[in-house]
């Protein structure tokens, strides 16, 4: 039997609004994520997709339930500690990178994730050929911008850098929160193609939130539909291959 990399057992998460109101968002999530799963996640606005990622990453703590990583209970583990095995790319190209540092400096900082990090000039120079090779894979000229400040990059290059930083230490779980949503169609398509290639080649375990039904079907081996804080549908690869976009829209209706 394939071991679960991550398991959520009846996870319930609430959020507190600015005026102190407590709202239940995740209402009992049960999920077993196997090593090598590439799961696309869809659901209406407010279904709890980002809250699910926040709960997995540790930026929100569940009110009840359990989260297990390789069988170890991590429910109370800090977000910082979880960065040792969880990589995350956000929708906003401004998140996840240090704008006033160069691309190469950001990449160096992303190595040794979760441990003490120092920027040593020698180490930076040593790593340039390696970083260049890595950046070339992103297929958008990032390899020619290694010494540029991140704030001067295009949105697509910045998201490509975020992706590299999230995967540089081969995370056990990669969380992609609509990571191409802010990009133009061509740039988005390129980043998704590279994302898919990297996940397959490096046998990464990944969860990707998307509002594009075509992408939810095209990528990954499993599909989840979240509705009102619960997993409404969990579809495996053979079933997913049979689905059409119209089938997915139907899940939103009832
Ligand atoms: N910190 C917070 N304070 C108040 N409400 C919150 C907070 N975080 C999330 N919510 C609410 O929780 C619900 C779920 O939000 P979440 O971002 O998880 O949904 P989502 O499925 O990712 O939606 P979207 O597709 O719009 O990104 C929403 O109604 C949102 O307004």
TrEMBL record:
Enumerate the subcellular locations listed in this protein's record, separating them with semicolons.
Cell membrane
Pfam families recorded: ABC_tran
Limits of the ABC transporter domain: 6-253
Q: Check the record and name the SUPFAM superfamilies matching this protein.
A: P-loop containing nucleoside triphosphate hydrolases (SSF52540)
Tell me which Gene3D superfamilies the record gives: P-loop containing nucleotide triphosphate hydrolases (3.40.50.300)
Q: What one GO molecular function would you report for this record?
A: ATP hydrolysis activity
Q: Name one GO cellular component term.
A: plasma membrane
**What keywords does the record list, in alphabetical order?**
ATP-binding, Cell membrane, Membrane, Nucleotide-binding, Transport
Give the way it sits in the membrane.
Answer: Peripheral membrane protein
**Which SMART domains does the UniProt entry name for this protein?**
AAA (SM00382)
Name of the protein? ABC transporter ATP-binding protein
